[in-house]
Structure to design on (481 residues):
């Protein structure tokens, strides 16, 4: 059982807690393979998806996870809620709490927004992405996929390539994988690599490496994780052109061949085909991108169960 | 109960199940955790006697418990593997100890989510009484009289490195 009310980030999770979530997710995976994909476990619990940013897979995945556990799932998006009338985040959260929600899944553009809410609500808060800070459930489903394919989470060379500057996925994954003793190589154009990022993971700093060369980080990598170029967060130009970005930081079949023979290629989605990843790689034999999506449902079911079940 | 007694009791259960179901193909479903090795042993005995191995499955009932919000610590959810095409089959649920009947209630709910079986029967190693629900086993290894403040623990060598049954007072 998770001895915590909320799931806010990977940074403050222990290794045992992470393994408990992954083990539980393995059992929950079976529910999604049944004809009747539903168990009564969380009957009578209310889960609210509060999304201040666009999302397909995370929101749908949480909704499906909740519904397969028989929880009542309510979706709120900022454009159709009172937020558009100027209600503050805190007032929105207190309102949901007053309606006796058991869990609020929040995505917000401001780093730390879920942490603020967690102190004010009785409901469990699950961080579904806050600014460029953390996206813990994504890192957990990535770890689930890696463990399934590689059989372990330690002693791996993990290349994380792309828009590191704007990526909460990169941060949460770096926290998680270095906790287990894998080496994480972060790779980005200098404009997309925040200075001092290696200090983000101060406890396991020796496992974090920085590079600006895609070929160097892919060489011998067990896992290659591509990050989306987040154009919507760019109000200035970070690189001259998409064509030039793809030439330097796009993953092609030829460049992926430098990795280990049984490399897995991951992407948290949504993909910009032809920007950070070539179509033949995204749909190729080493791609586990759709496995990540299936894992997402099982992992989120496990998290909802572990936070709300007891 | 000692080791060889556990074994002969399981063999007798296997024989009784076979006799009652007169040659129909069976599906044995072990309830996590000790029902699982029990079902496997019963299946081996059946295969020896009939040269035909029954199908085996496992069931974790934690997702169907009626006391999830009341148990102090989270039960660990184990694997559920029910064979496909279970519709219209004869299913035997296998568990170690039958007590309040609540586990079996949860197991029946769980099974019904997998389809509509022809029959669902129940085989237990120990029936210790104190039912809280109208549930009765079809096959019983041994019936024992117990007090409410006692705990009956079944040990099986696949999990506990020994075959034995202990009746202890709750501390």
């Amino acid at each position: 059982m998770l001895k915590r009310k909320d799931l806010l980030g990977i940074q403050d999770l222990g290794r045992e807690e992470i393994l408990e979530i992954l083990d539980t997710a393995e059992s929950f995976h079976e529910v999604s393979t049944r004809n009747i994909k539903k168990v009564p476990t969380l009957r009578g619990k209310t889960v609210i998806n509060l999304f201040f940013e666009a999302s397909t897979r995370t929101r749908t995945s949480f909704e499906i996870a909740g519904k397969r556990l028989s929880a009542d799932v309510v979706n709120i998006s900022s454009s159709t809620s009172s937020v558009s009338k100027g209600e503050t985040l805190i007032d929105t959260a207190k309102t949901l709490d007053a309606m006796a929600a058991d869990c609020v899944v929040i995505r917000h553009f401001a780093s730390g927004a879920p942490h603020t809410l967690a102190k004010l609500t009785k409901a469990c808060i699950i961080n579904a992405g806050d600014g460029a800070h953390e996206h813990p459930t994504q890192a957990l489903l990535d770890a689930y996929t890696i463990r399934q394919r590689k059989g372990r989470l330690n002693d791996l060379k993990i290349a994380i390539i792309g828009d590191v500057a704007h990526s909460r996925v990169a941060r949460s994954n770096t926290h998680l994988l270095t906790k287990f003793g894998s080496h994480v190589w972060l790779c980005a154009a200098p404009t997309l690599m925040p200075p001092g990022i290696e200090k983000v993971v101060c406890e396991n700093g020796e496992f974090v490496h920085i590079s600006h060369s895609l070929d160097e980080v892919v060489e011998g990598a067990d896992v290659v994780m591509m990050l989306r170029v987040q154009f919507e967060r760019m109000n200035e130009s970070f690189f001259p052109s998409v064509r030039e970005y793809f030439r330097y930081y796009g993953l092609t079949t030829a460049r992926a061949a430098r990795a280990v023979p049984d490399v897995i290629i991951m992407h948290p989605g949504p993909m910009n085909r032809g920007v950070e990843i070539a179509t033949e790689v995204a749909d190729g034999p080493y791609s586990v991108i759709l496995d990540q999506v299936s894992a997402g449902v099982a992992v989120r079911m496990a998290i909802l169960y572990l936070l709300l079940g007891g | 109960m000692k080791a060889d007694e556990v074994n002969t009791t399981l063999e007798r259960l296997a024989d009784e199940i076979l006799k009652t179901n007169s040659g129909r193909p069976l599906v044995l479903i072990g309830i996590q955790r000790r029902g699982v090795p029990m079902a496997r042993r019963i299946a081996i005995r059946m295969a020896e006697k009939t040269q035909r191995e029954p199908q085996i499955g496992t069931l974790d009932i934690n997702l169907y418990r009626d006391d999830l919000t009341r148990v102090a610590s989270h039960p660990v959810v184990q694997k559920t593997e029910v064979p496909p095409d279970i519709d219209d089959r004869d299913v035997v649920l296998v568990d170690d100890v039958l007590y309040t009947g609540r586990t079996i209630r949860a197991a029946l709910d769980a099974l019904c989510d997998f389809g509509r079986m022809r029959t669902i029967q129940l085989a237990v190693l120990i029936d210790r009484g104190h039912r809280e629900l109208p549930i009765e086993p079809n096959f019983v290894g041994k019936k024992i009289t117990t007090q409410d403040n006692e705990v009956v623990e079944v040990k099986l060598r696949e999990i506990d490195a020994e075959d034995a049954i202990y009746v202890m007072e709750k501390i």
Q: What stands out?
A: Chain A has eleven helices and nine strands.
